[in-house]
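To: structure desk
From: M.T.
Subject: fold request, one chain
Message: Could you run this one when you get a chance? Sequence is below, nothing fancy, just the single chain.
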Amino acid sequence: MSVSQLSVGTLVLILSCALLLELRLADADVPPAGYGQPSGEFDITLSRVPVSDRAAAKALKPPFQPTPEILAEGKAIFLGKGTCFQCHGPEGKGDGGAAKILPIQPRNFTNPKFTKVRTPGEMMWVLKNGSLGQTGQIPGTGMLPVVDRFIDEEEAWKVILYERSLGEATQQHPSP
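Reply: Done. Structure tokens follow.
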């Protein structure tokens, strides 16, 4: 998908994210820790969740198991109304059409290390609150909140389980 194929609403969302990110990166009090990794993906050990919210976020658990049906629903939301694919790409590799115009590459969910260091609850926190540099330690990615804007909380859990399955599948079947 090329940038010219994106809807006006999606382009406005992406450009808003990019502007917020640029403003946040310009903040001298927030060092760009973890950014600019050679692979293009940023330090996955750096949590997007502020310390004050981290324990509660980590304690959040999905209300259902990642059954094939739930994962299929999560994939459909990821590729559809959740608009996740616009930035994260149709395979969740962080290479969506909109990623080309973002100053920070979106998360690559096929990286098996990600599911080891980030909990489903932390992922839900980001879907609810966005990634706008709330920790004060690292700049955000510019991702705006999507829960209650594009998808509801139940749909968000399905998307999270689907995204996590991408990294787990890579771990079970690594590329040659």
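Reply (cont.): Residues 153-172 form the longest helix (20 residues). Let me know if you need anything else for the meeting.
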